[in-house]
Amino acid sequence: MKKLWGGRFSKQPEEWVDEFGASISFDQQLASHDIKGSLAHAKMLFQCGIIEESAYENIKKGLLSLQQQEQEGELSYSVKYEDIHLNLEKLLTDNIGPDGGKLHTARSRNDQVATDFHLYVKEETLLIMDHIEELQKSLLNLADEHVETIIPGYTHLQRAQPVSFAHHLLAYFWMLDRDKERLQDSLKRTDIMPLGAGALAGTTFDINRNITMTELGFSGKYPNSLDAVSDRDFAIECCSNASMIMMHLSRFCEELILWSSEEFGFIEISDSFTTGSSMMPQKKNPDMAELIRGKSGRVFGSLVSLLTLMKGLPLAYNKDMQEDKEPVFDTVKTVKGCLSIMTGMMNEIKINVEKMNKAVHQDFSNATELADYLAKKGIPFREAHELVGQMVLHCIQKGCYLLEISIEEYKEWCPLVEKDLYDALSPKTAVERRNSEGGTGFDAVRQQIDSAKSKMYIS
Ligand code: ARG
Of 293, 274, 272, nearest to 282 (Cα)? Predict the structure, then answer.
């Protein structure tokens, strides 16, 4: 079988070599974008007087029919035609005859594949942003219900200071918001068109790139043909942004896994997102959360593989770049899947308010309150810190908590202490009062929810 580019070849590669070089098994995902790109290119060729009207109409009819068949999953491709671009060109030519061969005028597969890939990444970026918003909404709903639910806040995974559960959830809301902003920003560099760059140097045909740009809905064009065909920054950025999302989801999952353990018991993940054990009947494993945590690895891997792929490539196109697609396809599928699962999991999560409340009453996370209390009575904070440290040690030795020490004992230890100390030491007061901007105080958290909602256009 003669290749579409077979003119200067006297020998055919063997089948297994063809197979090695082919990308059709995965780049068929770009079919709809490729057809869209070809429709725009054909229109431009006609409008610029490069192909005659009859050829354009013929090509258009053929491409629209391919589009229809593609949507219905009726197209079949062959490794013999290497990739999606040559497969579609072959199908078109089989369908409409020699006019099909005019479509590739003033175009190379190099600017063609780059255009397809830009269209794909742009479309998927917007979809990932939608997925993020769904999760943000779910977090906001939950936060709304739990402003006054208190959990221990940790540093070094040691109890530090109690915080509002809503505050904790909102921390993830803002991480996701930055993720969304990064995706939005990356669109500036994704939403630009390489088409018209030819193989690397432009073309002698009198093309008009503004026509294809408008037709394809791009906001701009590459100003340099060499850069246009060899840039994959937008794909790397997509994987980098996805990596950041996965790192955030993975941290959240780690917390869900901890919180759903017997030791914490703060939450229960719905049966729909957990599994049992084949041997231990009592088990309810947080599999989906663990899988999300695990899948962050493959997304980080894709980022590193793309960076490594590109780092040694001279300008312009090199066949190495065919390896750019699978990591991106896999990343997009993974990150969308993880965001959906996460949203489903959050929508059905059960919060064990009692367990959380019990936890904040059985620790020393109110020690800072005691030190602040003494400081407000005029004792220098450093001294107060030292004093409270000794008191905590005393409690540990005695086997009790700060709220269980009698007023007499407190007065002996420091005469400035009055009965109002007990209110200051209650976890609720400790949280409620921290109303500095961005703090965990109930009013501050309510304000935070308001600004989160207004960012999401929710009232
Ligand atoms: N399948 C190729 C890829 O994905 C298309 C571009 C091929 N260009 C070329 N000059 N061999 O990169």
Answer: 274
183 Cα: distance to centroid of ligand 1 (angstroms):
27
pLDDT-based confidence at residue 380 (cuts at 50, 70, 90): very high
Q: Does residue 153 share a domain with residue 229? A: yes
**Quick check: CB of 109 below 6 Å from ligand 1?**
yes
Buried b / exposed e across 349-370, counting CB within 10 Å, b at 16+? bebbbeebbebbeebbbbbbbb
Q: Is residue 236, in this structure, part of any structural domain at all?
A: yes
- Same domain assignment for residues 59 and 174: no
Q: What is the ipTM of this complex?
A: 0.98
Domain check: are 135 and 247 in the same one? yes
Domain span holding position 444: 359-455
Please confirm, yes or no, whether 426 is among the known catalytic residues. Answer: no
33 is catalytic: no
Output the pLDDT for position 457: 85
Query: Which atom from ligand 1 is nearest to the alpha carbon of 82?
Result: 1
Residue 322: inside a domain: yes
Tell me, yes or no, whether 177 and 224 share the same domain: yes
- Tell me the whole-structure pTM to 2 decimals: 0.94
Question: Hey, how many other C-beta atoms are within 10 angstroms of the C-beta on 382?
Answer: 10
Ligand 1 binding pocket includes 440 (Cβ within 6 Å): no
